[in-house]
Design goal:
The chain is mainly α. Among the domains are: 69 residues, Orthogonal Bundle (434 Repressor (Amino-terminal Domain)); 73 residues, no CATH class. It has 22 helices and no strands. The radius of gyration is 21 Å and the shape is globular. The N terminus is likely disordered.
């Protein structure tokens, strides 16, 4: 955790760099980033891309969350979200205790409907509502799964673990989201569901993506592809396979392999042409829109910000697309706008993200870094930016 909650990422990088007795040039060389970029990031003038941030974290032998300052406890306390994490942690630890005799469980169908409702809340970025309801559902689903021991009961339990992953990952609890994925694998194995197991490998690859361990993430995607190959050839498998290709594209882009990234995007586009918009299949939001959004992301990850913005102009977001995905895309666009010297456009884009998905936007590290860059870019901070900066904790 940062020593000072008002620090930005550049401050933390400088602090850890000095603890390691490194000059800026030495850190830039070790991390494989330009000296100019590192100085701008430390000054807070420009936001660090996730790829650059991961490279710096590796060079400093720290986790990326040590540099971003996650979880943002002050804001979590203000939003009364901090007190919802411990019950989730406790419910995750019930997995192997069998049925609880004090729990009067409902039928599997009722639990499945509520599990789907929680997934929908997360996609709508109503994280507080999802986090509040999750522990009780997870506890009840654990008892039901151990009691009836049907594939469907284990799938429902796996779905609650998936929601635990989504909530804790979005709020910055990296350690807990890994536990949730381990529980998801445990339940998917008992459900004998290769697609669910493949989706879990995709989510697991995202953990390594955020940590900057791209080779491990790519290996997980490969394992996920092989696991999906064991399932029946249908739309559900195609959706999961397409999403794995999108994850692989971002991993390849972060590792500097633009050709592989383009190949994975092309394969995902081919699958999306067949599936169409499939936002409810394992709640992956796969389809042509997600392929287009990932095209923007892969360009931005390669620091091709002008090209990313050009691609973003061609993205048509459906009116019913999940708020969580819209918000994440807008955060990516705003970062590209700041890097291409369009701070006013970046501010307007972040305001849109805040209106669409306030809870997710507030806890998105890329948003926070972009806002810090905007503050540094303005000689005098306009009221709208001042309000946004205060809201995200800067």
């Amino acid at each position: 955790m940062p020593l000072n909650a008002t620090e930005h990422t550049g401050d933390r990088i400088a602090r850890y760099r000095k603890l390691r007795h490194l000059t800026q040039r030495a850190l830039a060389e070790t991390a494989g980033v330009s000296y100019s970029m590192l100085t701008k990031i430390e000054q807070g003038v420009k936001p660090a891309s996730p790829g650059v941030l991961a490279a710096i974290a590796r060079a400093l032998s720290v986790q990326t969350v040590d540099l971003t300052g996650q979880p943002y406890l002050t804001e979590l306390q203000q939003d009364e979200l901090d007190g919802l994490i411990q019950p989730i942690r406790e419910a995750l630890d019930l997995y192997d205790l069998g049925a609880d005799p004090e729990v009067a469980p409902r039928g599997v169908a009722a639990l499945a409907a509520e599990a789907d409702q929680l997934c929908a809340l997360v996609r709508d970025t109503r994280l507080k509502d999802a986090a509040r309801a999750l522990p009780a559902l997870m506890t009840e689903a654990t008892t039901v799964a151990h009691t009836v021991q049907t594939d469907e009961a284990w799938r429902v339990l796996a779905s609650t673990y998936r929601t635990a992953y989504d909530v804790t990952a979005k709020l910055g609890f990296a350690d807990l989201c890994v536990v949730a994925l381990d529980r998801m694998a445990w339940a998917a194995e008992r459900a004998s569901d290769p697609v669910l197991a493949g989706v879990r490998q995709y989510l697991r690859s995202l953990v390594y993506l955020r940590a900057g361990q791209y080779r491990m993430g790519q290996r997980l995607v490969s394992v996920g592809m092989k696991t999906l190959g064991q399932g029946a050839p249908d739309e559900i498998r195609d959706v999961a396979t397409g999403q794995l290709h999108l994850g692989a594209a971002v991993l390849a882009a972060r590792s500097g392999d633009g050709d592989s990234a383009a190949g994975h995007i092309a394969e995902a586009a081919r699958l999306a042409e067949a599936t169409g918009e499939a936002t409810r299949v394992h709640w992956l939001s796969f389809g042509p829109t997600n392929v287009a959004v990932h095209q923007v992301a892969t360009l931005a990850e390669q620091c091709q910000y002008a090209e990313a913005l050009q691609a973003a102009r061609g993205v048509a977001i459906p009116a019913d697309w999940p708020a969580s995905r819209v918000s994440a895309h807008l955060a990516e666009v705003a970062r590209a706008q700041l890097w291409t010297a369009r701070p006013d456009a970046a501010l307007a884009t972040l305001q849109r993200a805040r209106e669409i998905a306030p809870q997710q936007t507030r806890y998105h590290p890329m948003v926070r870094e972009t806002v810090a860059g905007l503050v540094s870019a303005h000689r005098s901070t306009p009221g709208t930016l001042s309000n946004l900066a205060h809201w995200v904790g800067i």
